[in-house]
Write the structure tokens for this entry.
Amino acid sequence: MPRAEAQYPGHTKKDDEKKVVEPRAISVLEWVGEPGKPSSGRIIPITVFVGGEYQDGGLYLAQPAPLAVESDTLYELERAGAPQGTFDVAGGQNIAGAWFGFGQWKPLAPPKPPKKLTPSKVPPKVVQDNDPDRPHFKGGDDGKNAGNTTPPASDPDKPTIHRKPDSGGSDSNASGSSGGSGSGSTTASNDPDKPTLHRRTDSGSGTASAGGGTAPDDPDRPHLKKHSATSDNAASSDDEGGAVTTANEADPDRPKLSRGKPASTEKPLEAAKLSGIPPNVQQMTAVSDATVREPHTFSYQWPSPDQVVKMQAAVEALAIKAVLANGAAPTAQIPAASTTPTPPRITSRSGPRSTLAHQVAPKPPPVMLTDKDFRAYELSYNGGATLVFTAKAEVGPNNAGVTLEKFVTIIAQPDFNGDPQVRFQSVTDKAHLDITPQMRFVDAVDTDGDNRAELIFELRHSADRQFAIYRLHGTRAEQAFATGSLPYLASGGSETKAN
């Protein structure tokens, strides 16, 4: 009879045992006014990290509003990973083809004052070493206790060791400690002194499963923590991306982000909406995730304040070098050749060539940096410092008396000698924003939940803007994700240019 053989495929997990990866939404809060009490503000969805990939937060699961600005979504506000409060999204609105979220900012609750310790009403008592009630062990008859005829079991102060009830009935101490007759028939659960473990009671059926405990309604459905009762009862299915008959119909397979309390009124929300890009607009990162994570601060702790000043000066020197290398004096700003006299050519007739044919290099124009923003982060555990510097550079005046205005961005990391090394640099001006946008740094945030932070920048073009995520790989920083186009729009639909 032929023998049937099959290859062992290895251990496989069932679908209901696979770990469900929850979506992690990253957005940027823009506001005007005092932090915690803004006069107006909005949430700009950046990305939703799900399935190991970045999805555009302004488009992911739009029905018609995307998941990142769905009503009752709760965001945790952060600065370099440190909590700054929460933002409850009351609803999203489509403005010129881009979705924005509007809601209420709740500041971080102040820490509770430490409880005052009250003195005890019972004064302490000093116990001396010759206390007759002090428990002690009694040894064998070595001559010192020759007069002691009291049996050990009759001493009320002697500590005893409780033996197992099945160890035999001849020992009176074991019988007395177990509470039985010494025959060994008493079970261990009847021992009042035996420590016990409190088991968890199942909330569902009485039969325990192999994994222990009860599973959620749908283990494959991604969702975030909720605080509203209505969202907890939402139905789900095993298939993902089910068809929706209408735009307003709830999708049972739609993942849920962190849930907050719905807004009570619509009128205060309308008054608090931010439109356009005011000159004094402020930005902060916002994260919505169902997975409970410990706060992780990414700010770099400098050993001394002197090192901050020294490192910033070194990075500013790198920024000036990048500006001059970018072309501080374009040909359009140089006077025409007809108006510039040509220096006479010197020919070598006698003497060394180095003394007669030497030409002096042109002196570079002065560069002054303004609107400087210097920050340092530790993007990973023991990862060292990562330096981010942005500024506006005024170059000149040049030979024609023209002063150029440029925007420079530097990402650097110190080497073993403490000298910053450039990992990324960008230089542009207003005439080339369509090719190279102005980079405005937002913050460092863990975008994918791996306890390593990435850098978020706002990219301002001449007619629109984007938000981008940059990740450091070895000796360089690369763009990992960029959103779609976001318009410069003010109230009434008028366009607002970048500053």
About this structure: The radius of gyration is 36 Å. DSSP finds five helices and 16 strands in the chain. The mean pLDDT is 76.
